[in-house]
Design goal:
With 123 residues, this protein is an all-alpha fold. The chain is built from four helices and no strands. Helix 1 packs antiparallel against helix 4 and helix 3 runs antiparallel to helix 4. The protein starts with a helix and ends in a 5-residue tail after the last helix.
């Protein structure tokens, strides 16, 4: 059960990051398509499934944040990704700020992937 769930978690993560990049690119060219209710529901639904799969994997493997340093770092980085991603998509902010936040969010994703693969919070 663990391995198929891990693959689903990875798939949800890929869809989540791909969706973020697509929404950020659409926002950068001034399109409001990414703000439509259906698209928001799909992205939030996928992110909910991503979180649920992550929590379930944590329970199945008996590895928990604050007990495992790598998992604590990964969780903190995911929170930072969410904050930076939200700022990157905020239309009220200047384009330069949104761009920096967008690239920052993607850098954090790279760190999350590194931690997930190596189980080591050091970069």
């Amino acid at each position: 059960m663990y391995e198929p769930l891990k693959l689903l978690h990875i798939a949800f993560a890929v869809v989540s990051v791909t969706g973020f990049v697509a929404r950020a690119l659409l926002a950068a060219i001034g399109s409001t398509v990414w703000q439509r209710r259906g698209i928001r529901l799909l992205t939030h639904g996928n992110d909910t499934l991503l979180l649920a799969a992550g929590v379930t994997l944590s329970i199945l493997s008996h590895q928990y944040p604050f007990a495992q340093p790598w998992l604590t770092a990964k969780l903190a980085a995911v929170v930072l990704y969410i904050v930076l991603g939200a700022l990157a998509l905020r239309p009220a902010l200047p384009a330069a700020v949104r761009t920096v936040c967008g690239f920052g969010a993607l850098a954090v994703v790279a760190y999350v992937i590194h931690v997930a693969i190596t189980k080591n919070p050091a970069f």
